[in-house]
Amino acid sequence: MSRPLPTPIVERQNDEEMLTILRAGESSHARAQKLAALHVLVSVVLAAGAVLAVLVPALQPTLTAGGFLWALVYAAAAGAWTENEFRRAARLQELFDTRLYGLPWNEMLAGDVPSADETSRLARRYKGSAESLRDYYEVRDLPRPFDVLSCILQNLGWGARVRRRYANTVQACVVLWIAAGVVVGVTNRMTLAELLMNWFVPSLGLLLFGVDIYRGQRDTAAVREHTRQVLLRAMREHARSGMPAERVPELMTLARQAQDALLRTRLTQARVPSSFFRRFRERDRDDFAAAMDEVGGWLTAVGPQT
Question: What sections of the protein cross the membrane (predicted)?
């Protein structure tokens, strides 16, 4: 059962309790992204070594062995370290959302609720601007359940767009690297075995990492886009029917299901890099503000039934 909200979402999200949870989640996400960046750095260094090895053949055995060993380390452990960190960050984001929306915690999917001491400890590690976390959701003061559903819509729409864009960028980089290897092989008249050992094995960790990112972010975007369309259809039908009060519990159940879809994707894929997100932030913000205007238009066009 969903709980009644003591204050509107637009106000409650700025309470100190909620901001503490946000700071904890952001610090955990920052750590996960640093681990992911370290994986990229090691993989890029080894991949760059493949270029150097073409010019200095004596380096080829060392770089080939290093690339193979790094691919094994990534497959066996390095990826799991990062996954554990962003799973913790996902649970903190879920804690923020469920408390803000008044939704029940799904222990079967999310596991145990993050403890107060862990949340406090992680919040103290937050190094960003406190002001940047205020007004986390840019929504109007809407009647329940439109306030909750609008916040979830914002997560679904923004996340799907950014993740699909990031997946396409990573895919392009992987394809370009493979194409570059083929060009180098043809130019230097390498055999297939030489090309594999001197170019692709040293960069194997980078290629595996890129494929993982592309596949995961693409699948995440697809799930979020589908869930968003389901929510929009339900909200539109509710508004057109006059927003009868007896349908509110049904829509709050739908909100919990949509939140579960979000949580599943958060537990399996970290956020895109912050720099990538900020690059398109203002343009995306304008588009989603227009979507919220559309929702507001439904409410003004059709009043509740009496």
Answer: 35-56, 62-81, 166-184, 196-214
Write the DSSP string, 123-151: HHT--S-SGGGTT-S----PPTTHHHHHH
- Confirm whether 87 is domain-assigned: yes
pLDDT tens per residue across all 306 residues of the chain: 566 666 789 889 999 999 999 999 999 888 887 777 777 777 777 677 666 766 667 766 776 677 667 666 665 655 666 778 888 989 999 999 999 999 999 999 999 999 999 999 999 999 888 888 888 887 777 888 889 998 998 888 776 777 888 889 889 989 998 898 888 888 888 888 888 877 787 777 778 878 888 888 888 889 989 999 999 899 989 888 888 889 999 999 999 999 999 999 888 766 677 666 667 666 666 656 666 666 666 666 555 444
Residue 306 lies in a domain: no
On whether the CB atoms of residues 258 and 230 are closer than 8 A, the answer is yes
Q: Count CB-CB contacts under 10 A for residue 125.
A: 13
Does residue 185 form part of some domain?
yes
- pTM of this prediction? 0.78
C-alpha to C-alpha distance for 148 and 256, rounded to whole angstroms: 10
Domain that holds residue 42: 9-301
What are the tokens at 186?
């043809």
Report the alpha-carbon distance of residue 235 to residue 253 in Å, rounded.
Answer: 13
User: What distance in Å separates the CA atoms of residue 102 and residue 147, rounded to the nearest whole number?
Assistant: 11
Please give the tally of structural domains in the chain.
1
